[in-house]
Design brief:
Blueprint lengths: L4 E2 L13 H10 L4 E7 L13 H17 L5 E9 L11 E5 L2 E4 L2 E4 L4 H11 L4 H12 L10 E2 L20 H14 L5 E5 L1 H4 L10 H9 L3 E5 L12 H10 L4 E6 L2 E6 L1
The structure holds zinc ion (2 copies).
One zinc ion (ZN) binds next to loops.
Length: 272
C-alpha cells in the first residue's frame, strides 16, 4: 500500500511561507497519511531569517503539539527539528531529528554551504587556495562529525556541496578523490544514523535537476545499509510531494526496493 509522508517540512516559524496548520490542511487535501515538521534549529552563527529563535522554537513546539491533537483523526503528525551541526539549541522534546551541515567551521568562522555559485567561488578562493576539491573534502570531513553533536535520525541532503553542479563546476564529483572522501564520511555516519533522505527541494526551487544525493552516492549508501526516506524539504505547501516519483526512480536505480516511513514505533520499511 502506498503511504504518503514528508518528514522535511519548513513553516513560517522559520523561512517557509505557510503556517503549520495550512500545511496540515494541504497535506490532508493531497492524501498524505502523515507529516513531520522540521523547523530550522536556532543557530547562533547564521542569518536570522533562516532559523527559529529560542522563543519561536517554544511556540513552534506548542503549535505542532496542538495540531497533532486537533487533526489526529485525519492525519498523523510528528514534531521534528532540522538540527544544524554546530547549533547549541535545546534538543529535547522532538519525535525525530534531521541532521544537516549547512555551515562548516574554519577557525572561528562559520561558512555557509547552502549558498549560490558566487558564494562558492568566493569561499574557494578565500579559504581553499582556489581548489574546489579541498572545500568538498573539508565539507565531508566535518559532516562526518554530526553524531557527536546530536542524536540524529535522518541524514539531510548529504551531498549539499553539489548544490550548484547544474550551474557551475567546482570539483569533479565523479572522481575517485571526491567519492573517497564522501565514502569515508558515510562509513562513520552509518554507525549512528540509520536513515538518509532523498531530498527533492532543490528541484522545486530551480537550482537542481535531480534530488540530493546523487546516484553514485546513493549506491554507496545502499552498500553501507542506510535506509532511505523521501522528502521535499518543503518551504511551500503546494510542493509538499513534488518530484517524489523522481526520488523513487533514483532509489530504484541505486538498487533500493524499499523506502522508510516514520511511525510511532520508529522507522518501518515499505515497498518503493
Ligand atoms: Zn537543510
Ligand atoms: Zn530544510
Amino acid at each position: 500500500m502506498a503511504y504518503l509522508q514528508n518528514l522535511h517540512t519548513h513553516t513560517n516559524f522559520d523561512h517557509g511561507i505557510n503556517s503549520p496548520e495550512e500545511i496540515v490542511k494541504k497535506a490532508i487535501e493531497k492524501g498524505f497519511d502523515s507529516i513531520g515538521f522540521s523547523g530550522h534549529a536556532y543557530t547562533f552563527y547564521s542569518d536570522k531569517s533562516y532559523f527559529m529563535s529560542p522563543g519561536k522554537t517554544k511556540e513552534y513546539k506548542k503549535e505542532v503539539g496542538r495540531l497533532k491533537e486537533a487533526y489526529k483523526d485525519k492525519i498523523k503528525i510528528f514534531l521534528g527539528l532540522e538540527f544544524d551541526m554546530y547549533s547549541d539549541t535545546e534538543q529535547d522534546g522532538y519525535d525525530y531529528m534531521i541532521g544537516s551541515c549547512h555551515y562548516i567551521k574554519i577557525g572561528n568562522e562559520y561558512i555557509g554551504i547552502d549558498r549560490d555559485e558566487a558564494h562558492y567561488k568566493n569561499i574557494i578562493e578565500k579559504y581553499f587556495d582556489g581548489d574546489g576539491m579541498k572545500l568538498a573534502k573539508e565539507y565531508f570531513r566535518q559532516t562526518a562529525m554530526l553524531p557527536q553533536f546530536a542524536n540524529i535520525n535522518i541524514l539531510a541532503h548529504f551531498d549539499l556541496i553539489t548544490k550548484n553542479i547544474d550551474r557551475a563546476s567546482f570539483f569533479d564529483y565523479n572522481s575517485k578523490e571526491y567519492m573517497n572522501s564522501a565514502i569515508e564520511a558515510l562509513e562513520i555516519l552509518s554507525k549512528d544514523i540509520p536513515v538518509f533522505e532523498v531530498n527533492t527541494g532543490g528541484i522545486v526551487r530551480g537550482y537542481r535537476k535531480t534530488p540530493y544525493p546523487m546516484l553514485n552516492i546513493i549506491k554507496e549508501m545502499k552498500r553501507l545499509g542506510f535506509g532511505a526516506v523521501i522528502t521535499s524539504d518543503c518551504h511551500d505547501a503546494n510542493f509538499l510531494d513534488a518530484y517524489f516519483g523522481d526520488a523513487k526512480e533514483l532509489l530504484k536505480s541505486a538498487g533500493y526496493t524499499e523506502q522508510m516511513i516514520l511511525t510511532d514505533n520508529g522507522f518501518k520499511a515499505i515497498e518503493l
